[in-house]
Amino acid sequence: MKRYDLIIIGAGPAGLSAAIEAAKRGVKAIVFDENPKPGGQLFKQIHKFFGSKEHKAKIRGFKIGEELLKEANDYGVEVILNAIVIGLYMDKEITVQIGTEILHYKGDAVIVATGASENMVPFPGWTLPGVIGAGAAQTMMNLHSVKPGNRVLMLGSGNVGLVVSFQLMQAGCEVEALVDAASQVGGYGVHASKVARCGVPFYLSHTIIKAEGEESVTGVSIGEVDRTWQVIPGTEKHFEVDTICLAVGLSPMSQLLSMAGCNMQDTPGGFVPVCTARGETSVPGIFAAGDVSGIEEASSAMIEGRISGLAAANYLGFITAEELGAAVNELKKALQSLREGMFAPENRGKVIAETEEGIAVSHNLLRKGYLDEPEILRFPGVSKAAGIHPVIECTQNIPCNPCQSACPKKCIVIGEKISALPAIDPEKECSGCGLCVASCPGQAIFLVNEDYEPGWASITLPYEFLPLPAAGDEGIALDRGGREVCRAEVTNVKAAQAFDHTNLLTIKVPAEVAMKVRFFRGLEAELWAK
């Protein structure tokens, strides 16, 4: 039996972060993970993170994973892959299956960071090939470069459903519809908007009736639901699809903690251990971090992991209680900032009618996934100044502020509270550099110049699709709901290293539609779609 100061189960964002913090303090740590690659969900996440600089905002998930792996390696953390931990006991002994062997390890402390598993929804035909989880679709696309299907229906409008819908389109799939039994979009409005402007319709208060097909999915029927979640007769709709993607929530993988005798509790978010704010369970020396103790974003999981790593180091005698307290207090501030705003844990399930600034929330955004033009003018990030200026269509209090630090002219103001709505400082003049457009994780910032030429305006928008258009290309300008507005000409394309693959596409449109146009589709894409 091999012995370590600290055993960590799970090499995802929480587990690696815990290992790094503990190893920094001299703890001999080992990490086990059942997957062939470390990093957990991070390597599926090709989108940019929200938050602030301390939360690794505007960095893509897989790059954060690479940074964590390098840091863990630099501090001498041992990572064992293809290792399934099948037992955790009160004396902090674990049994691990590696290949055909069952091995025993003993830790003076254990951190469980096993994450969560995808939920499924049963309906007639749900076992047909072609019905997959959103996480599985991400794995296929972003880890193995395999297209999950050609025509996809997404069930679930939380952040996972919205983000994966966009990534499906980036992979060349057609997303036929986004469906949710809830009456309003569950995820960030900026995520919904970038899906809607691509032309994907939202069917809220709808559910899947059945998947169709004999040997695999060939279609799907959905219907509107009433207040008792029953399908309303006569509301059925049919889509010809070959893939049904399910993004209906996650369940903490907490079985090992229960096996170890930790006190557990049933919560709306799943069966989780009873923990202190430092991740300490009821069993001394056993800690929990990340989604296993409650579902949140990966940014939160990384901070929780760091806190648990420090708490384990203190338990093992590598740092004092005073050192622990000082470090954890700073981390708690960072964690709390991620838990503020409309999507704070205490607001789950509530209908938020106004922003923290007292501005009415867009009803159209919640029901259809995009802002209606008259609604957008009431938000502080939207102005119609002369010359080139940013238009920020971020209208919910979400924890994110990269645009504020990205602007060299200080045109964009959020303030110290990162969940505040971004505002435009009318005293500052925009240079048109586009750094704010590229830095926005929600792709919600546009540069508008209604004085581009007499009778013409230019719109600079974020673009993350291939093939990348070139200056001189013609196409169709689309509005926030993905509807055709007019023909448009590409006048400029910027692809700088600082933009991190968020290309800046500038198109020329009639001046009167400058506040309508928010996306561009090339003529080749139009012909392909038909």
In terms of per-residue confidence, which ranges show pLDDT below 50 for 5 or more consecutive residues?
A: 526-530
Distance between the termini: 63 Å
Task: Tell me the CATH topology of the largest domain.
Answer: FAD/NAD(P)-binding domain
The CATH H-level superfamily of the largest domain is FAD/NAD(P)-binding domain
Mean pLDDT: 95
Radius of gyration: 24 Å
**Helical amount:** 10-25%
Count of helices?
Answer: 13
Strand content: 25-35%
Shape verdict: globular
How many domains in all? Answer: 3
Q: Which structural class should the secondary elements be placed in?
A: alpha/beta
Largest sheet: 7 strands, mixed
Number of strands: 28
* CATH hierarchy class name of the largest domain: Alpha Beta
From the coordinates shown, what is the CATH architecture of the largest domain?
A: 3-Layer(bba) Sandwich
GO molecular function: iron-sulfur cluster binding; metal ion binding; oxidoreductase activity
InterPro entries: 4Fe4S_Fe-S-bd (IPR017896), 4Fe4S_Fe_S_CS (IPR017900), FAD/NAD-bd_sf (IPR036188), FAD/NAD-binding_dom (IPR023753), Metab_Enz_Cyan_OpOx_G3PDH (IPR051691)
Pfam families: Pyr_redox_2
Organism: Desulfosporosinus orientis (strain ATCC 19365 / DSM 765 / NCIMB 8382 / VKM B-1628 / Singapore I) (Desulfotomaculum orientis)
